[in-house]
Structures are given as structure tokens and as C-alpha cells.
Amino acid sequence: MKSEKEILLLNSDMNFKSLLEIIDSVPTRKRGTSIETQERDKNFRDVLMHLYEWHAMLERWYREGMDGDIPFMPAAGYKWNTINLLNKQIWEKYQDVTLNQAIKKLKLSHDRVMELIKLHTDEELITKKYYKWTKTSNLYTYFAANTSHHYIWAIKKCEVIAKIIKETENDKVVK
């Protein structure tokens, strides 16, 4: 039987690979296309940089927490109930990044977070209040929320983007 840690690592890597496969399924010249939507994320880059920034926040929380501090979560100037404003600010911050840069940055941050998970035992990951900085929660919750679970959200977003790009491409071929 696999441990909680093994399952988290496996699901995170599997979902991460699935996410990249969706992007790879779109012709290279079309991968930077933005779709018409009322939603915040209009292209693959937007989704990937969102994940990247949340990895960066997780890494900061982890570093500060393990140093004995209580990290400001989710980010300085924001509370959990203002997360939409934070996510909009993240979106604005990365509008000049290319998709290739986004993919490289996200692959590196994914690898760093996977290495942090590997540093811990199952007990350290799943025991609530094991680390003071996780408050009433456990480390597993933080890692899962910013990896495997967040990747599922990203997969759904990217599937919609890919579908619309492919349909638009097919419409042009038919006309």
C-alpha cells in the first residue's frame, strides 16, 4: 500500500504531466492564442503563471514557517477572503511572460515543491499542528492544494482553452 506522501507525489506528477499534454495537443503556432472569455485566464500562459505564483507563495510560507515564523498567508496585503483580488494581481503581473517562459518557470517550481514534499515523513505531512505555522491544518493540505488539486483546476481550464483553439482552427480549415 502506498503512503500518503507517495500518493501525493504520484498524483501531483501525473496531473502535472496531463496538464502539459493538453498544451502539447495544440499546434505549436496556436499555443499562445487567447480565447474570448469573461474569465480571468484567457490562455495557457495565464493558467501556468497562476500555478507558478502559487508555488512561489507556498515556497515562501514553507521557508518562513520552517524558520520559526508565522508566514503571512496568502500574501502580504491580502486575506483569504480577498483571494480574487490577489489572483487578479497575479494575472496582471505576468502578462509580458511568453508561454515558453511560463512552461520553464512552472516546471522548475513544480520540481522544487516535489523536493520539499520528499523531505518529509508521512507523519510530518499528515499530522495536524505538527508544524506551528500550519496552524490547525497539516503540511499535506498546503502541498496538495498547491500541486495535485490545483493542477486539476488548471487541467479543466486548459481543456477549455485547447478545445476552443482547436475548434477555431477547424472552422478556418472548413471555410
Automatic annotation (TrEMBL):
Signal peptide as annotated in the record: none
Coiled-coil segments on the chain, per record: none
InterPro entries, alphabetized: DinB/YfiT-like, DUF1706
Pfam families the record matches: DUF1706
The protein's name in its UniProt record: ClbS/DfsB family four-helix bundle protein
UniProt organism field: Cytobacillus purgationiresistens
